[in-house]
Specification:
The chain is α+β, with helices and mostly antiparallel strands and about 400 residues long. The chain is built from eleven helices and 18 strands.
């Protein structure tokens, strides 16, 4: 049914106002907020879908990167997907997604990531669960970390560029972490309403070992400290992080932060008092199969060969048999082979990200493989649970 819709970039000035109205209704936004959001993302990064010669929906594209196995893979994030209510169920949303993916494929973008409001739509477009977005919380009284081995240096005024190098040192070690788009960086230091944002280097200003960016908020059950972003590169930095936030306990009841499902920060706590307050999974789509597999990093010290057979109903270049040869932490892809591990493009996503083991993906019906192929895939895609700290 995609023939009844027209896909385009910004064509007329009134397109922005029409999409802004749609997004405000879709996301229950205050009047005017959607235009602020659109301008922050940049109108050139929006894609529109039209029906009956008027804008009936759109989405935002965010060019960035994602770290996989210590290597940066170019990635386009999809955000703010919105369709006018009277056109929902018409096929407009899937048409919008399919056109966007075809455009990204011509640009040779390897992968795409999004946060789904509904999985069904994005699964139709070839996305599948890729990793976690987790919120944690802890009572400041229960932290019980007193010793602070490093000094803290306030950053005034806040300029996100001073954090980039420290962030990248941590990001490249975390499976699924973003190489952030400037819009995401700006959102971390941009206050909402009446809030104030504070930031500190952890350690000496000339050679910091991490940083913390946070804001403080009142809630019905007391005041909480929200860590907007953090980096800790040493054990002393972790201890200082906990000591610093614990020292807010006279006024702050809780601390909230983003981390992995298995959060290494909590290993330094005396008791298991930190709890996950929110958990959801983002979705990933392989757009250029060869580039995605070759640009990713792999476990060092293994040499293995995996014979894939992939089906992709939308992007025909991803169809067929491929051999992935891995050695010295890098992969090389050639066409052909035995097709010993069979899956569609959706099933490739959680294998690519190491969210699930090949064995569990086979149990879930996401792939079919010989014992030899299962063993090779398990070695090749071994990795810690993927996550990211940013919502977009």
């Amino acid at each position: 049914m995609t023939h009844q819709f027209e896909y385009s970039t910004l064509a007329h000035p009134q397109d922005i106002q029409q999409l802004a109205t749609i997004l405000e209704q879709c996301y229950v936004m205050p009047s005017g907020d959607s235009e602020i959001y659109i301008n922050r993302i940049g109108t050139e990064n929006f894609r529109f879908i039209r029906g009956c010669e008027q804008v009936i929906g759109g989405l935002a594209t965010l060019a960035m990167g994602q770290w996989w196995g210590g290597q940066r893979v170019p990635m386009t994030g999809i955000a703010a997907v919105g369709i006018a209510p009277e056109y929902r169920g018409s096929g407009a949303a899937i048409a919008l997604m399919e056109h966007t993916l075809k455009e990204l494929h011509t640009q040779e973008v390897p992968i795409s990531v999004l946060y789904p409001a509904t999985q069904r739509l994005y699964r139709k477009a070839g996305y599948e669960q890729g990793g976690s977005f987790c919120s944690w919380e802890i009572s400041t009284q229960s932290i019980q970390v007193r010793e602070q081995p490093l000094p803290l240096q306030p950053i005034i005024p806040i300029n996100h560029e001073v954090f980039h190098d420290l962030y990248q040192q941590q990001a490249r070690l975390i499976h699924g972490y973003l190489d952030r788009n400037p819009v995401i960086w700006q959102g971390l230091i941009q206050p909402d309403n009446q809030e104030i944002i504070y930031s500190y280097f952890i350690g000496d200003k000339d050679q910091p070992q991490g940083y913390i960016i946070f804001s403080q908020h009142s809630a019905e059950d007391g005041v909480f400290l929200r860590v907007r972003d953090w980096v800790v590169l040493t054990d002393a930095a972790v201890q200082t992080f906990w000591s610093f936030v614990a020292n807010h306990r006279s006024q702050i009841k809780q601390v909230r932060w983003k981390s992995s499902v298995i959060d290494s920060l909590t290993l330094q706590l005396p008791e298991q008092t930190a709890k996950i307050s929110h958990h959801e999974r983002w979705m990933l789509r392989v757009i250029d199969l060869v580039k995605a597999l070759e640009m990713r990093g792999y476990p060092p010290g293994i040499q293995a060969e995996l014979h894939l057979e992939v089906k992709d109903d939308l992007l025909i270049d991803n169809n067929g048999k491929f051999i992935l040869f891995v050695a010295n932490g890098r992969g090389e892809v050639t066409r052909g082979g035995k097709g010993e591990l069979q899956l569609d493009i959706r099933g490739l996503a959680p294998l690519y990200t190491s969210l699930f083991t090949p064995y569990h993906l086979q149990l879930a019906g996401k792939l079919h493989a010989t014992e030899t192929a299962l063993l090779a895939a398990t070695q090749i895609f071994a990795g810690v649970s993927p996550w990211m700290a940013n919502f977009f």
